[in-house]
Amino acid sequence: MDSFNAIVLSIFLPFIAALLVPLVEKVIKQRVGWFSAAIAFISFILIGQVTHNVVEGHTIEQSITWLPSAGIEFGIYVDGLSMMIGFIASGIGVIIMSYSNGYMSHKEDLPRYYQYLLLFMGSMIGMIFSSNIVQLFIFWELTSITSFMLIGYWRSKPASIYGATKSLLLTAGGGLFMLAGFILLHSITGTFDIPTILHNPEIVQDLKAHPLFLATLILIVIGAASKSAQGPFYIWLPNAMEAPTPVSAFLHSATMVKAGIYLIARVHPIFSGTDAWFLLVGGIGIFTMLLAGFLAFRQTDIKAILAYSTISQLAYMMTMYGYTSYHEPGIGVAAATFHLLNHATFKACLFLVAGIVAHEAATRDIRKLGGLRKEMPITFIIASIAALAMAGVPPLNGFLSKEMFYETSLEMGHVLGGPFEFLIPAAAVMAGVFTFAYSIKLIDGIFLGKRHDDHLPEHIHEAPYTMLVPAAFLALLVIFIGISPSQAVHYIIEPTTAGILLEEVHLHVALWHGFTTSLMMTIATFLIGIAVYTKYDNIAAWQNRTNERYPWFSVNYVYDRIVNGAKYRAGSFAARAQPGPVKTYISAMLLLFVVLGAIPAFIVTATLIPDSMNFNVPAYEILILGMMIIAAVASAVLRKYLHAIIALSSVGYLVSLVFIYLKAPDLALTQILVETLTTIIFLLVIVKVPQTFREKISNTTLAKDLIIASAVSLIVLVLMLNATQGIVSPLESLSYYFVENSLPLAGGHNIVNVIIVDFRGYDTLGEISVLCLAALGAYNLISSRGDNQ
Description:
The chain is mainly alpha-helical. It contains 32 helices and 2 strands. Helix 20 (465-483) packs across helix 21 (485-501).
């Protein structure tokens, strides 16, 4: 299989498999998780087929026609960056879906769970291999929608719904800002194609000199920051922890939150090397890594601690990708890329450990845990490896990327000079201190100290192997990369860094480089971290007191005020605009139609009745028209439904008779079929309702209805008469337009068929969409009543 087909299959195979999951579940029952894991593994293998080309320094670009009229193609772009994220998304996907076999109860809605996971994974892979910004945006928003479904998987939990809604509003909303940035990018560069922009220095220079450069950068960074929970957008991630733990491990350690980091890395060659890039990307990163690391102290839920640590660790990467100067645009790229890989391993491992602990101890509250090292020794070892890696302790992989972070911070501080020569490295060390403290808290709070017998089950034991093995595999990966980084660096980090910097890269990563300044910073981090940890509970208590005293000093407070205010105003408006009776809405729409229709009817047109009207009508047509009027009036005045329906249907059949006289038998046949079907449906419906009209209409109401109906009829009559004759000179009539354009635009000689099939094609699509939405709404209304209603 060639590279293009392999990558395309790795994208769409999860979508296809998601459709098959309910059928597979009927056959293999609760083991459907292994089917999903197998699909993820196949995607992993398919991505692996392109590895040798990328490691050798090649990129893969190929596309097929998609929207030729808009100049958009469906294409893939494979380089080191997309390959690494693809491996992480599919590889962690295999581990998570395997782990879910032990974590998820058999009583859960497993087909829906695995369908969501596969849809998300396919969206993620599709996004990272997209070669144009339109395709990237579509898959980007698909990840927002599917993550919304995953976070809100437990629909009966209000906290789950709140977290899912919050994540969707912020990430999808940020995506719209990103779309605006993409539109500006296209307007400046003239292309949607990402490789075309990346590999053309003239386009990049023109972009940096363009007046809209800063606006484009800001809009794209907002999209990336919202997705990766950076800056003020960090608030959605802690609430997203209401998702099942495997979902948190998948979305919030390795995939969804990495999408924003991926976008920053992808556009790095386009925007870096400027002050704006450093201030925006680096500034947001430094601010977020310090804030999130500090706020992690007051969290008592294991997953909440991991959420804030994730925000802080992602900010590490933002900071390093933000390190740039005009002469050295990629100062921190290699370090950020290596930390991106390492974070995926130790953070996914920690989330799986959190799931194991909650599964066995029936709580995630770290205040109720403690002393579990004897009952869960394997879990204790796995958790210690992952937490120490996050703290940057050698010889684990986190130590290596943390050292590189310190080195690049020193380099960036040196480039800026002045006070920044101290401030930038100091901020890096402070972030490391916070990381060290909450990492030790995870080990100490869960496994060390005394057991809280009053809060824990009497018998706690290790989780089943289906849960332990995936976590243990990740822990081994953490150790392997730490002790022997050359393999990961050569086959993953160097091609990825080269894909971002667009030049050949050779890195030397080792545990020991001598007594360097960065090593001194690491030692200082450990010493200060131990001192801070002794005051951990005091700091957390101070944060709680401050939060209680100044609740308004919080981004969450602002978010809730905005969202709740919007709900209240929308509810007030809806109460006034939708009082209840359907007749009110119909009357309002008809009156609006009268007003809007009167403008062209009485202002634009010269006369109400066009002078060119032909009143030389044959006698048989007058007879038919008279019968139609009588039938229409009868349908309105008859007192029984059956009689009224027959009268109404007569109007339709008489219309078909007119078509026959006008020599349009195909149109007449269509009219007869539609009228017959409508009559049958009406007759089936009236069987279930009273056979006579029981509603008593007052004279006042009747007068209002007559006025509205007469006005609408008059407007329709005037509009149709003028439309068929040509509304305003030199505009021609409707019939003239269709006669002139049916063949050149639609290729059809039968004008009636062309009108129905081609010119009304979008109308029909819209009607079908409305009917589908109405059906979904009706289904949800019925489902929401519950089983006992």
